[in-house]
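Here is one chain, start to finish.
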Amino acid sequence: MSGEIREAIVAEIGQRPGRWRVSRRGCALGARPETVRILRTVVRGELALAAVEFEDRSGRPWSWAFGAVRGRDGGWKVCGGAGGGLASGREPWASLGGWRWSGRWCLGGRVHGEQVRAVRLTDAAGSTVEDVVEGGYALLIAPEPARRPLRVELLDAESAVLAAQSWPPRGRP
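Its structure:
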């Protein structure tokens, strides 16, 4: 199944410029298909998230989380994506992008900090979803529609909160 998800993502971001391009703040970034690496995939029912790293046509590295939805034919189709350059920041810290699909929040991205073992997402009603950090990435799919505001907590091995942040980050829609 993860091979089918990979194929769907590579088919989308590997198209020639002019068809589908990864964009950030209006600046088109063409992904070079030969550099696309799927680092991790999580599937929850008909939704999947994948942590993806790639280089654009200028050789700049990018880190994105892409979502895919399983169609009636059983195939996978990309339904969203969010990300940015491979940046580092203060630790512990999570650089999560996200979107809603059928009312459910999908968040994914890089997690910084060696002591961070898991990421927990909590919505305004107190519903939570957690994911273990693997390969420096967390991928979260809320099991039900979530209400804003959303809170992201970075947890250590004993589930103690190392850091917390709102999502989306302040100043973002």
